Amino acid sequence: MQLRMLTLHKPIHDEMVARARTATPLEACGILSGSDGGVRTHHPMTNADASAKHYSLIPEEQFAVAKAIRAAGETMLAVWHSHPATPARPSEEDIRLAVAPGVLHVILSLAGSEPEMRAFLIADGKTESVPITITEKEQDDV
Ligand SMILES: [Zn+2]
């Protein structure tokens, strides 16, 4: 089943923004897991590229997180990375290197005065925007 929306608890959003700001000028990245499009857990990941223009995950780290997600009874919903100085749109490389079909790609841009977070489906070289809802409540209360 392909996700068509993502719901994010505000503290997780804020944690992602803090992490992206700390990593600047390099890109930060992470994995979001939960169920039914509702994010419950943020797994910060190492950007193996240590680059300002792209990122890649470390396979061993990704494997360990995938295992932890299964153990928690959750599913992997999205891979996110920051764009320290460019808009919240997938770059040509993001589209070309998009992995994990069925998982959303979230981009957090710090280019504007306020952080901007957007989610995309990327498949076969095409991208489609997917809405993100940021909630003040815990997912369990929704
Ligand atoms: Zn990117």
Overview of this structure, please?
- The chain has a 6-stranded mixed β-sheet. The protein has a two-stranded parallel ribbon with strand order 1-8.
- The protein has a single domain, classed as Cytidine Deaminase, domain 2 (3-Layer(aba) Sandwich).
- It is of the alpha/beta class.
- The site of zinc ion has 5 residues, from strand 4.
The helix content, as a percent range, equals 10-25%
What count of domains describes the coordinates? 1
Helix and strand pattern: EHEEHEHEEEE
Low-confidence stretches: none
CATH superfamily: Cytidine Deaminase, domain 2
User: What is the level 1 CATH name?
Assistant: Alpha Beta
Tally of DSSP β-strands: 8
Compose a concise summary of this entry:
With 142 residues, the chain is of the alpha/beta class.
Name some characteristics of this structure.
142 residues; alpha/beta; Cytidine Deaminase, domain 2; two-stranded parallel ribbon; 3 helices; 36% strand; globular; binds zinc ion
Layout: helices, strands, pairs:
Layout: E1 6-9, H1 10-23, E2 29-35, E3 38-45, H2 59-71, E4 75-83, H3 92-96, E5 104-109, E6 116-123, E7 126-130, E8 132-135
Parallel strand pairs: 1-8, 4-5
Antiparallel strand pairs: 2-3, 2-4, 5-6, 6-7
The structure holds zinc ion.
